[in-house]
What we know:
Blueprint: H1 7-33, H2 39-56, H3 66-87, H4 94-120, H5 122-127, H6 134-159
Amino acid sequence: MIFGMSTATYTLVHVLISLIGIGSGLVVLFGLLNGKRLDGWTAVFLATTVATSVTGFGFPFEHLSPAHKVGIISLVVLAVAVLARYAFHLTGRWRWIYVISAMIALYLNVFVLIVQCFEKIPALKAMAPTQSEPPFVVSQVVVITLFVVVTIFAVKRFAGTGVLRRA
């Protein structure tokens, strides 16, 4: 039992929160690419992404794992994004700091999603049982490359314009 839930139920809640974080993060990304703040979607994205990292620490563990390290990094990056967005109101350099930190947080969620897919989906696990095989490595390289490119465009279109449109 974890927080009064069976492990299966807790896992399901954690996964659902993670998927909402990824989905809302993709909406926020498209908003950034179009120079729009999307305040409601941003709040959902940041809240669920924080919740994803926090609930990740609720699973039983005996030592600090790579997943915990990703969670810690994500929480630090999210703290920067929240400060940039809500404390500094996206003024000046805080615009691009927000875009980069928010996109790193989204990337980390997607990174973990890919890891989990390769661990849990039998066909993917068969292709990369140790997650060091080419299918896994190629998928991660493609995803990080895509995130770097779209983050650069988001910085240019959202942070570079100095114009913030509410939507």
